[in-house]
Amino acid sequence: MEMFENRHISDSQAATSEGMAADNPLSLADLYKRNLERAMACNVDIAHIARSQKLPPEKLIKFLIAAEGGPLAKELHRAGIDATPAAVSQRRRQIPPAVFRKVFLDFTSSSAYGQPNRDYKGYRVLACDGTAVNMARDPGAPSFVCNNSAPRGYNQLHLSPLFDIYDRTYFDAVIQPAPRKDEPGALLEMLKRNDFNRKTIIVLDRGYESYNVMAHLMNTSNVYFVLRVKHNHSAMREIARLPMLELDCDIAFTISTTQTNEDKRNRHIYLPQPKKSKPGSTTRRARWDFPSPYTMRLRIVRFQLDNGNFETLATSLPRSFTVDDLKEIYHRRWGIETSFRDLKYSAGLVNLHGKRDDFVEQEIYAALTAFNFTSRIVQETVVQQPTDGLYAYAVNFKMAVTLCKEFLNNPNMTGKEVMQKISRHTVPIRPGRQDERNLRAKGFGWFTYRIAA
Q1: Could you read off the pLDDT of 192-234 as tens digits, one per residue?
Q2: Cβ neighbours of residue 28 under 8 Å, at least 6 residues apart?
Q3: What count of Cα atoms within 13 Å lies in the side-chain half-sphere of residue 197?
Q4: How far apart are CA 364 and CA 358, in angstroms?
């Protein structure tokens, strides 16, 4: 798998540089489309599969990126592909999900090349969180979940991405079967396989609260973190001892995997290690990948919300970042939650076209690619604002996805044309709106109920 980890692709970056020449009439949307097609063509060779005149691999990859939520036969007709759904399934078995992942990474890297850095005080801000992708029921698949709350069982994959909050694109992603879901482990995997050549802040919610995660983040070059932590009875020991009031202080403590008398005298924090644990074990709180004893220093910031509740953040950022800066950075973390909504309901990840685990992985990477492709074009689209209107207006992302997928399928549509169409579909920005989250379980949208899609 090492061959898929290189985030720098000179061919695609060269194509971007050529297209940005002053005498080149192509729009940025045309260049993004060219970069995506180049990424698909370059990675087909990795698959080592026989070519088909009717359905070559790059055509199939492009079809899945541009597909919408209708039945497979209808989507093939819409894309102008003369092939049956059965032929598509046969071809999909020959392409591993790693090829789709490489297309996603290559396009993301190449489309960012030469673009202005969208950041916060010179730091790129990435958020990490997880979301579930529901699938068709298959008791024999690794993704099958069966427990007391769901005795009949269901299938689900878990997606853990790094999302660039200010650039509105996905940076990397890890996909795991739901029974083996491990969000902290997915974050550590992405830390290991990426080179962070820019100063980067990773924003995390309480699900990533562990000594091991914080130690890995502090030992990764150019990486800082802002992590929301608990402050009740289940909080980390040194944080639980702090008074419940607004503060900004530094704490230091020592982690130990032993419990000797000297460790107890020095008040080390003891992390018990299971005797049969292996590297990469999914044990959350006890996982520890560093020497023992190990000293850690954190900056703890606690502030009060408008409703009177307190929030506590642990961070490795320097004092040049004020409390207001940290509040703003953590507030921006909500961008990854809204991106999941757009990924599922705008890019169409809730309407899958396959049942197998590897087919769903293909479609997850295809949806991530479609999301980034649309986001890049939306960023370059100019929206005319009303001179005397009540609200400012932004692009309707759902319509933008539809138009960008049409742009991919239609060789006669120009980048300038698709950007003009996108600019005509807008929604008002209403700041300060709040609504209670309506969380409820959602099942898989079965294929027989998509006739009108």
Answers
A1: 999 999 999 999 999 999 999 999 999 999 999 999 999 887 8
A2: 376, 377, 380, 415
A3: 4
A4: 10
